Amino acid sequence: MKLIHKDIDKDGRGKMVLVPDEGEDMWHTYNILMEGDRLRATTIRKVQQESATGSSTSSRVRTIITIQVEAIDFDTAACMLRVKGRNVEENQYIKMGAYHTVDLEPNRKFTIYKEEWDSIILERIENACDPAKHADLAAVVMQEGLAFVCLITSAMTVDRAKIEVNIPKKGKADDTQRKKAIVKYYDQVMAAILRHVNFDIVKAILIASPGFVKDQFFEYMMKNAVQADNKLLIDNKSKFVLVHSSSGFKHSLREVLEDQNVAAKLADTKAAGETRALQQFMQMMGNDPDRAYYGIRHVEQANETQAIETLLVSDSLFRSKNLDERRRYVRLVDSVKENGGDVKIFSSLHISGEHLDQMTGVAAILRFPMPEIEEEDHALDSDED
Amino acid sequence: MSRHRDIRNLDYDEEYDEACDEDVYGHSVDDGDYGVSPGMEQYLYSRSRENTHGFGLYLPVEDNIKEEEESFENSALESPGIERSRHDSSSYQKPSLSSEDEVRLESVLDEMRNILGDQFSERELIQTVLKNNFELDASINELLNKNSTSDSAQPLPQRERRVRNRVAANAASAFVEQLSLCNSQQQSQQAASNHLSTKASSSIQTPMPVVVTTSAKKGETSRVVRGFDVLDAEESAAAENNLVAEEEEAKRSRSCTPVRGGKDKDREKDKETSSYTRTPAKIRDKEVNVLAEYNEQRASGKELLNLVVVGHVDAGKSTLMGHLLYLKGNVGQRVMHKYEQESKKIGKQSFMYAWVLDDTDEERSRGVTVDVAQRMFESDTKIVTLLDAPGHRDFIPNMITGAARADVAIVVIDATTGAFEAGFESGGQTREHAILIRSLGVSQIVVAVNKLDTVEWNQDRFVEVKSGLRQFLKTVGFKDADVVYIPCSGLTGENLVKPCSDEKLCSWYSGSTLIQAIDGLKVPERGVSRPVRMCISDVYKGQGSNMCVGGRLDTGYVQNGDRLLLLPQGNVLNVKGVQADNAAPSTAFAGDHVTLTLGGVDPSVLHIGDFLCDPTKPIPLVNRCQARIVVFNIAVPLIRGTQVDFHYLSVTEPAKIRKLVSQLHKTTGQIVKNKPRALVKNSAALIELEFTRPLCLELFRDFKELGRFMLRTGGSTIAAGLVTQLLD
């Protein structure tokens, strides 16, 4: 993402001009843009024109439009952002108040007008515009008969393919069926890797599985690559990293990212940082539960006494349509930062963010134990009962 | 009048005083920070207390959820139960002992509490210890055996009873509390309430006239909200009149969980069935008297036993079983010779017997079992389906699918110096497997102490292993009577089929061989006349366009030409062939491992983990379920939203914990805390699970063969559970 122009006055109103470079920037934009904002971007519109004789012709014209945003859709698989709204600026082709849906395109600039630019959004833009923070990674999580191919960028984990093949069990006199099924399974995983992984961009490809599946698959793939003289695979052989995971489900990707060897390789990526923070939280929960709280009510209580050392928040909370709720979280984040706490905003597209979302989306590690929060809560609960 | 009162009161008073004092001192260290009255204590959650509990504690909890058939004489048990809970632990006065004996008693008691938890009262413990002269082992044995005999004689304390009990116990404890609070001042009032408490225990309908203390209030109110009070009252009335039949009826309509839902569930089931009644298919056109058929076909022959072999990696499971199969003549001489030559060629001759069961290339080249192998052999009295489970920790999911199909287990122990200890440490598979098979419902095991030839058949080693294991297995919940220890060697074949021949072994061992031990195991009852349920554990192409599925027929009866409903897909499939190793072709009964040939089915429809069932009585399909779990020794506590792998028969699916409903007491199942923030290790709880796609589940209450599951995450088993309610 590139920031072209920024014009924000003292009370937070203003506009920004941005140019998205790649799919991930669409995800950032999705998190920046709120309902009620105004968006100015170039778009294509079908325009019907009626000639003097009454015959009508329709033509597609490219024009610049400013809309008041009413709905935003993000497609994770294709990384497309569609923004629907009403026209607020008269132009040659489109009347005021007419509905239009803009597909934001990479490398074309757009302008966002907001009534209030808050600290979270500004920070997000800053991060998005920092070219050093990119580290692309592909991961294949496997277990016999099941595999997921995912791409991990700094802000997203995107599923690219799920492979499911029925592999007959061992123990029959004739095991050709089993062997055939295994070969079919490996072939499908290999095809998925070749189709979805761009070897120019990714820094490493993780292959994770329990047991020997990863080794056998890697062996098979390399043997095949040599036979078929697949330069792409042979040249990038060193990019493959074999990691142990406990299962072939997508959520074991978290385990993979926690792995010491892998963590060293991606030390600075956001995904690894998030995983680490969540791990810390869980550990704290185990060792000293009075210093780990989740749920907005508990966390706010802890914040009142300035107890928060690390705050974990999922970015999905900032997409809330309810402005008050959003402000509540922004206030929380700002106040923690003010008090010298560390704030980690998780991407809800990462596995760790998904997990954080499941546990209400907000969690905190405290500086000192606060057992009273739970006690108070318990008292409240029993009152409710 | 006054004479009566005197006798009652005086005794009571003093004893209560003593008991309360003891209580307070016993816990003063933990609870020092806040003043807790002894009666409150049971409702408070304290982490430190949690740790003093042994592992075996929660296993009886499972038993508390029982099928309905076994729940007759509750009413008879009822009043003594109440009596006990009120008097025993709190009011029992220790016999006076010399100071030395006192210390010995305390240390033995501590140890026993560690192992047994609080399933026995203080009085029972002390009496047993004194009887056995401070011998720890003997006392534990006696207690456990006592437990088991009472098990067989009378049904186990049921969950139903406990719910009722709790009301009584609560009421009683409320009174007790008052007693202890006001005893010094108000003798006469006390007498009244004392009288009442006796009354309350016999009939809960008695209104409580006195101020209710907080603890009691908490318990009571929550129940009132959930509408259990009424039920319980009815229940006890019924019990009083010994209306067993009526009670039975009442129980049917009630959930076994403390949360309301019995009725919901029934309604749900009705809905479920009604939605399927559209399907015109019946399982078969002509009715078959399944029981008669079963008796005719099976009564005379050998009994069927499903046996799983577990143990630490490289303990010699496959070798032991391979050798056993060879000695029983299930593997040909020629085949064995071939294995011997081939294994010699790659320098792994010691694996030759393991190759009988490890038949894929990867397993042979790595020398590790990856997936469960299934074989069949006959002993003198039984037909045994052998399931050889992998021992490597990465393949525990496979091991679970195997163990879920088993009735009994052989635990193989490597007796080599250091190897037993390695398997037994906290990361060792001996430990984890034993816990797993117990949680999956296996109650009888044979412990094969393997590789004893490497230590020169040293008796001391055998005894050492045995005593080390005995303690542990007891804490896991295996009774001593259900565990047999056999010294043997898988590689030399010593003491497997023929009685021991090695002098060194014969010098001290004259017990049974492994095969005799297997013969001695009891076969559990099979749900032959229940609706058909079968979880598919293998799918492959048969001849022509037919598909074959393998798996254990969990309940019911299948014959050629039957129509079965495949769920979750919803197809009705024709059974073209039924093949079970142990029986005549074309029929199979519950418990058999069968291969069904299905006609007219698209191969892509069938998956491992799908269910086949009776089209008229389909298995419910749910997205969410409520379950009682016991949490194992985990590092990271379980909180809402934790993602887990859900293992259920052959099904392995990702799931997440949607809600922590309540934390339960491990032995009694009482609610300790509603909506806990987190579940720490070794706790029990009621939780709600959510799956990513609909799964076929049965309640443990309805089908004890189904309904048990394991939760795993990050390569370790975190909890075992029972399905108690289906939601959605």
UniProtKB/TrEMBL annotation, chain A:
Domain of life: Eukaryota
Localization terms from the record: Cytoplasm
Keyword Metal-binding annotated: yes
Keyword Metal-binding on entry: yes
An example molecular function term from Gene Ontology annotations: metal ion binding
Domain eRF1/Pelota-like N-terminal: 1-130
Chief location of this protein within or outside the cell: cytoplasm
GO-annotated cellular components: cytoplasm
Cofactor(s) for this UniProt protein: a divalent metal cation
Keywords noted in UniProt: Cytoplasm, Metal-binding
Pfam name, any one: eRF1_2
One of the GO biological process terms: nuclear-transcribed mRNA catabolic process, no-go decay
Family: Belongs to the eukaryotic release factor 1 family. Pelota subfamily.
Entry-linked NCBIfam families: pelota (TIGR00111)
Summary of the function given for this chain in its UniProt record: Component of the Pelota-HBS1L complex, a complex that recognizes stalled ribosomes and triggers the No-Go Decay (NGD) pathway. In the Pelota-HBS1L complex, pelo recognizes ribosomes stalled at the 3' end of an mRNA and engages stalled ribosomes by destabilizing mRNA in the mRNA channel.
Protein name: Protein pelota homolog
Species this protein is from: Halocaridina rubra (Hawaiian red shrimp)
Lineage: Eukaryota, Metazoa, Ecdysozoa, Arthropoda, Crustacea
Automatic annotation (TrEMBL), chain B:
Amino acid composition bias (Basic and acidic residues), ranges on this chain: 261-273
Name of the protein in question: HBS1-like protein
GO molecular function: GTP binding; GTPase activity
Keywords: Cytoplasm, GTP-binding, Hydrolase, Nucleotide-binding, Phosphoprotein, Protein biosynthesis, Translation regulation
Superkingdom of origin organism: Eukaryota
CDD domains the UniProt entry points to: EF1_alpha (cd01883), HBS1-like_II (cd16267), HBS1_C_III (cd04093)
Region named Disordered: 68-100, 239-281
Organism: Halocaridina rubra
UniProt main location, coarse: cytoplasm
Family annotation (InterPro entries): GTP-eEF1A_C, HBS1-like_N, HBS1-like_N_sf, P-loop_NTPase, T_Tr_GTP-bd_dom, TRAFAC_GTPase_members, Transl_B-barrel_sf, Transl_elong_EF1A/Init_IF2_C
Catalytic activity, reaction form: GTP + H2O = GDP + phosphate + H(+)
Gene Ontology terms: cellular component: cytoplasm
Compartments where located: Cytoplasm
Entry's family note: Belongs to the TRAFAC class translation factor GTPase superfamily. Classic translation factor GTPase family. EF-Tu/EF-1A subfamily.
